[in-house]
Amino acid sequence: MRSFAGGVLPPDDVVVTALRAGDEAMFAALLDTWSGGMLRVARSYVTTDSFAEEVVQDTWLAVIGAIDDFEGRSSVKTWVYRILINTAKKRSLRESRTLPWSFFEPDGDHGGGQWLGPVPEGGWQEAPAAWPTPEGEALAAEMRGLIAEALARLPPRQRVVITLRDVEGYSSDEVCEILEISAANQRVLLHRAREAVRGWLADYFESVKQPE
């Protein structure tokens, strides 16, 4: 399999040309590089890991089928993620599921905390107290599980924004492009998601705080 220095993929024009030529090594490199993040984003929309895997598989099939129509108006990665999200949305509509309580709130986007107004990009309105650093592999694993559980409780739009920003490390501009939302909407969703997750995890952090 072809390898790339530092695991960095080549420029988009090289990627597109290779995919159009049926370059299996390039396709495998994209799978290795992007599929993990795609699974996490897909899981924001569907109810099980197996459904998320199917969404990712369907997305890659759609990418291969549509690569000749790619016009370069966005990056290849953004284009792929848009296909992923559209595929995940369609799949979620077919699922037989029980709606969480958050779906019954007025705008369907509220988390567990009070909206306090605009905040600086990527920050809390008030500086949060320092969170304890998990010590030991067992505690770290428990922490990851609690965070995953908290994310699962969020409304879908909040969940996908915080997943893209805080889990996958996308910039606000990239998230706006992928989801086709405004910068203001992205900030609101991200703030509400972070506030809700922090609220749900507050008791846990308090319980592991070491006595002075």
Mean pLDDT over all positions: 77
Task: Please give the largest β-sheet.
Answer: none
**Structure class:** mainly alpha
Helix content: 55-70%
Question: What's the tally of helices?
Answer: 8
The percent range for strand residues is under 5%
Label the overall shape: elongated
Distance between the termini: 54 Å
| Structural Rg | 19 Å
Low-confidence stretches: 96-131
Number of DSSP-assigned strands? 0
Element pattern in H and E: HHHHHHHH
Question: What would a concise description of this structure say?
Answer:
The chain is an all-alpha fold. Helix content is 60%, strand content 0%.
SSE arrangement:
Elements lengths: L11 H9 L3 H19 L6 H18 L9 H19 L42 H16 L3 H12 L4 H8 L3 H26 L4
What does this structure look like?
Helix 3 (49-66) crosses helix 4 (76-94) and helix 4 (76-94) crosses helix 7 (172-179). This protein has 212 residues and is mainly alpha-helical. It contains eight helices and no strands. The chain is elongated.
